[in-house]
Each structure stands twice: as C-alpha cells, then as structure tokens.
Amino acid sequence: MDGIREAPAPSSTGCEDCLREGSTWVHLRACLSCGHVGCCDSSPRQHAHRHAHAADGHPVARSLQPGEHWAWCYTDELFLLPA
Asked: DSSP assignment, residue 57?
C-alpha cells in the first residue's frame, strides 16, 4: 500500500491508450500510483490491467465510474473499499 494516494483528476475523457489507438472501452480505472487512466478488464484491450503489470509498483487502480468508490489490487487480486 506504500505509494498509494488519491489519483489526480483524469486528464482525458477516456482510456488514454484506447484514445491513442482508436479502440473502445467499457469502464475506466485510474492508477493510484501515477493517475494513468486505463480501461477495465471487461474492455477489449484491458489497458488498466496491462498498466498494473507493466509499471513496477503500480498495482492498485480505482474505479472512475460515477457512484463507485472502490479500488482493485491486480497483484493480490483484492477488492478494496474505503474505510
């Protein structure tokens, strides 16, 4: 949990990688280490998952869906809720 902080406001209106590639997403996730916005595992390209495994020390992402207040640790496969 070291290094996790509230992600900055998203700098894009969607998955950064999908927008660059011209692909689509289902839901958005924000890395709690660097703020990278990626698409969820239900999306065709699963960019949030790829980011978590490619970026050393960036295993936790939060949901960016309206009304959702949870995070997911890709390394430990843990669903995290706020205290």
From this structure: T
* 7 falls within a domain: no
Please give the model's pTM, rounded to 2 decimal places.
0.87
C-alpha 7/C-alpha 26 separation (Å) is 20
Nearest to 29 by CA among 74, 67, 61: 61
In degrees rounded to 5, what are phi and psi of residue 48? -65, -45
Task: Check whether 20 has a pLDDT greater than 90.
Answer: yes
**CA–CA separation, 39 vs 63, rounded Å?**
10
Domain of 44 in residue numbering reads as 16-80
Tokens 């699963």 -> residue: 46
Give CA–CA dist 23/82, Å, rounded: 32
